[in-house]
């Protein structure tokens, strides 16, 4: 439940940042469709496909990476979720603490406690 709450906060903050940036409307539409789909286990594979398409259209859409990592976590694909978060890092506003909370949580789930501590510094 903690992971889900942190991811929701991450997604919300990333959404606010997305509103301030000029992301591709096509990428945003695909990403936004997945937010409802991620609540239904029978739609997760479709949601992942849409998120991959959104990221391909606009790689700087950090919210899509967060949504994808959340779905991968729910599918017990922690390593892939971690890689997704790491892929997003180059586009993250370094002042956004929610990204680092999400990254830290995924690092901890992958047993990478030392790296998790560094995520806060």
Automatic annotation (TrEMBL):
Per the record, the domain of life is Bacteria
Q: Report the transmembrane regions from the record.
A: none
Q: Which Pfam families match?
A: TPR_17
Q: Which residues constitute the signal peptide according to the record?
A: 1-29
Query: Keywords, A to Z?
Result: Signal
Identify the InterPro entries for this entry.
TPR-like_helical_dom_sf
**What are the coiled-coil residue ranges?**
none
Name of the protein this chain belongs to: Tetratricopeptide repeat protein
Taxonomic lineage: Bacteria, Pseudomonadati, Bacteroidota, Bacteroidia, Bacteroidales
